[in-house]
What does this fold into?
Amino acid sequence: MSDIETTLKTLREAVLLAPGNFPLTRHYVRTLLDLTRFSEAERFLRETVLERNREPDFQLLLAEVFYRQGKNSHAMAIVETWCNPENLHRPALILHAKLLFRNGDVSRAVQEYKRAVEGDESLVDHEFASLLGITEWNEDHAEGSDSEGASDESAWSEVVDGKIRALPGDEESAENPLIERPKIKFDDVGGMDQVKEQIRVKIIYPITHADMFAAYGKKAGGGILLYGPPGCGKTYLARATAGEINANFLSIGINDVLDMWLGNSERNLHQVFENARRSRPCVMFFDEVDALGASRSDMRQSAGRHLVNQFLAELDGIDSDNEGLLILGATNTPWHVDGAFRRPGRFDRVLFVPPPDAKAREEILKIQLADKPVDNIDLSKIAGKTNDYSGADLKAVVDAAIETKLHEAIRTGHPTPLKTNDLLTALKTARPTTREWFATARNHALYSNQGGTYDEILEYLKLK
Ligand code: ATP
It folds into this structure.
């Protein structure tokens, strides 16, 4: 029996011996979930645990299992029972908020989240809060506001505004979206040679060599979905794609698209695409595609379903001409992306963006240090010590070293250039952030790798 099977067996036996022990049960169930053994977790809860114990915590654990599988309505059915004031069980509010968020009801998700943490600070979930746009900045401002409702709204719209000015639902900004003209090009992106080449072939050449494509009767179309650990340059590369061909760039975050569900308007989504069509050539970049496409069939609100279908129709260019639109998407969790998004003409090429290798790390460091005062830095030494660091992690190292230098210069009155040792010192406090992602991705690649979709992850992890 493998180590993991032995651990699971021991855990299971422990749970059976202490059926009322919630932390232990939760630990066992979450271990199964982390291994993507969803049906096993569901069966165990339904057939063994809940048969004996129907306390709310145990029921909510089953809701969590449903949630993780994308069975939103099943999860909602349990969660709602514990959210009304007469029967309130506060942890249910967090899961309720997540379900509302997934269904596109962002403002109610914010309300529920706040209701949960105001009564019990141990329920704070920083990652989810930031997804909701609840940041410390917002809290500060919200406290200073007169009415709670008003503060919620201003805090939220501020965050949305920060992400993309082309806010659907707001007629004026939908008419005048913030379409950028990025200055960075592929040369400003370290490494990623293969991904750059694929982008060239799939979406740049059809525009720059349109005649050639026409001569050979090859139709352009379809987009690329980039996936991989956070901070490895997916967004940066999308922006550089626009810069590379002097195209416009329109970044659409998940918050913006979900927000449209509140504004109930497929028309607004159409408007965003139309704005991009008017600004051709234009790279449209959709971030966090997983949240957009997750569990389409399970959406409770048919308005949400219509909107996602509208999104797919826009990608297909059913009623419009998509020539000159370059479609890029990104996700950290490709296994949650609805299959409908991957059909031909949509995100029909899925590319893995791995953490940079040593050579790429050296390039990234060089780019990051290009406009800084430096003294003969041994880039290959730093690159050699930063295995598993993402581009964003490397940027954090450089930023930290610069900050220290700056303080020193202010204190002594003598600015000195950055040296290798300064970066080595900064390295001590900055850990790589990609490992956690691989812990999850590995399981998906090993256990749900239909059609070899995640072979690149296995190759990267040297499991293939
Ligand atoms: P997430 O999945 O969290 O959205 P991401 O993969 O989109 O992350 P970016 O936001 O593009 O990552 O990267 C964060 C920052 O890290 C960039 O703005 C850039 O400064 C730096 N960076 C990341 N990768 C590279 C790279 N290959 N070359 C140069 N800079 C990079």
About this structure: Residues 136-177, 295-300 have pLDDT under 50 and may be disordered.
